[in-house]
Structures are given as C-alpha cells and as structure tokens.
Amino acid sequence: MIDLYALTSPNVQKIYIMLEETKLPYTEHFVDVWKGDQYSPDFIKINPNSKIPAIVDHEGPGGKPYTVVESGAILMYLAEKTGKFLPKDMAKKYDVLQWMMFQMTGVGPNFGQLFHFKMYAPKDKDTSYSMARHQTEVKRLYEVMEKRLAQGSYLGGDEYSIADIATFPWTRMHDMQGVKWEDNPNLARWFKSIDERPAVKAALAKVGAIKSNRDTASDDQKDRFFNRGHYARA
Q: Are residues 36 and 117 in the same domain?
C-alpha cells in the first residue's frame, strides 16, 4: 500500500495518473497547502521541504517503508517498482528521462510562474516584465514540444512514458497559457491520446473531487503560501 500526500496541482496530478496507470493500491492524504498543512510537524517528517506530492511506500525496497518526495523522483521510483512507462533499453530510457527533465526544469517552473503572475500577482504592482518573460518562454517551450512530437507519437519516443505523464497535467490549461491546439496539430494529437486514457480519466476525476481552502484562503494564508508580505525574506 502507498500513502499519497496530495492536493490538486499539476505536480500532484502526475502521481495520481501514474498510480492509476500502474494500478498500485494507494490511500490519499490531503495536505491543504492553502491552510498551511505542509508546515505541520507531522508532514515535515515526511518531506522536510514542505512540498507535495510525497509518497510513503509501505512495501518499499527490502519490504520496508520508503518515502519518496519530488514528483520526478516519484515517477521514476514507481516506474522502476512496476517495470512500466520507462524502457529498459539504455538509449530509449534516456530518451524518456531527458524529456521528463525538460518538464521538470523548463515546463513546470515557467508554466507555474506564468499561472502565478496571471492569477495571484498583486494588482497594484507592475508585473509586465515578469508576465512577458514567462509568457514568451511558455510559448517557446510549446514550440519545442510541437517539433518534438512531429518526430514520434510521444515525448520520449514511440511509447507512452513518464515523460508524457509528467508533462500532460501542465498542458491542461493551454488556452489560459495563450496556446491554441488548432495551431499545434502534433500537440493536439498527443494531448487527445493521453486525455482519453481510462487511467487518466480516473485520476483527473479524483483530483476534481478534492476540496481545498484555495477560494476562501485569508490574505495571511496566501501570503504564507507565496512567501510574500511579512513572510518575505527579500
């Protein structure tokens, strides 16, 4: 049995999808980051970095409980545990891993920052530089993916893999990100093929049912979550 510490972010969605795809049994534990649950002493024991997702595999290496944090590491761990969605052949394996790292180092940070500045930046501050910087990079990253997907069915090659599982949740808001599928036929085809997978549908249904404090969070709770106001260290 796996304990999944989760809420609704794209990084968490990756792990829901992977668990549904691999059919591993798991129990959900919701960590409402809008309430500050990630800073509780009990959760810090699981992840000292106070971030979700995190998992505890009670049938880990050697049959002992094992904790994994960071979404990319969790995907790799589950892929190796189950022998699924990560090729054994060395070249094909690293085709997948380098495109998963493309998501971890490029797609995630820039898509996340664009969303932040669009949704949560103070309205009385000039954020035009930040918006332009991240919007430009988001569109460039989509262009890279569009070209890559002209060469094969999936990001890591001809087979669906953890590279696709890692990236797909971040592309679900492509319209808000200023990218239209009608202008990107390869991305449109790739997205549709993943969105229609039964395990993906099941995972997203679970995510969609999760309730959080996001819409009712106080200004202080938002400041703590975003490390701003009197929580800022700059």
A: no
